[in-house]
Write a structure and sequence with these properties.
By secondary structure, the chain is an alpha+beta fold. The chain folds into two domains: 38 residues, no CATH class; 131 residues, GTP Cyclohydrolase I, domain 2. It has eight helices and seven strands, in the order αααββββαβαβαβαα. The radius of gyration is 19 Å and the shape is elongated.
């Protein structure tokens, strides 16, 4: 698979008029294939394997927030990176998830060809599925190189998306508490 991907990167490089035999590019197709496999490794992961039983019984019923989870993804429209931070919260319903698993869920979905709106929803729905939480909230702010490097070329633009499930959607006070705590 990686060899085929390297050959395709070689075709792309040749297609733009470069010589893949020159010193600086000689190993680029293989390096690009390896990097692309890494950047899209989310396709090789499953939620069940990722969580790996790291759910723990708890009588806690207050909001849990994991803030400033760095994320890196590739825009499915241009294959250019977007990067930012996710704020993830949930209200447990008898079980809590191991802390690192929240960040791993973010990474699993970010490491796929993606749009930010979909990424936000996937993270929220996965956390809801895994924990059975009373409510889940996800907010992402990201910079998109497809908007910064090409097209409109707006260097300081950011995109913000959110997804609220359960009590975060149903109760304005819960939503407001989350939004206040992530500011």
């Amino acid at each position: 698979m990686s060899e085929q991907l390297a050959e395709q990167f070689e075709q792309i490089i040749t297609g733009i008029g470069e010589d893949v035999r020159r010193e600086g590019l000689a190993k680029t197709p293989a390096r690009a294939a390896s990097a692309f496999r890494y950047l899209t490794q989310g396709y090789e992961q499953s939620l069940e394997e990722l969580v790996n039983g790291a759910l723990f019984e708890s009588d806690l019923d207050e909001m849990i927030i994991v803030r400033d989870i760095e994320l890196y993804s590739l825009c499915e429209h241009h294959l250019l990176p977007f990067f930012g931070k996710a704020q993830v919260a949930y209200i447990p319903n008898g079980r809590v998830l191991g802390l690192s698993k929240v960040a791993r869920i973010v990474d699993m979905f970010a490491r796929r060809l993606q749009i930010q709106e979909q990424l936000t929803r996937q993270i929220a729905e996965a956390l809801q599925e895994v924990t059975g939480a009373k409510g889940v909230a996800v907010q992402i702010t990201a910079n998109h190189l497809c908007m910064m490097m090409r097209g409109v070329a707006k260097q300081n633009s950011e995109m913000s998306t959110s997804m609220m499930l359960g009590s975060f959607r149903e109760r304005q006070s819960t939503r407001n508490e989350f939004l206040q705590l992530i500011r």
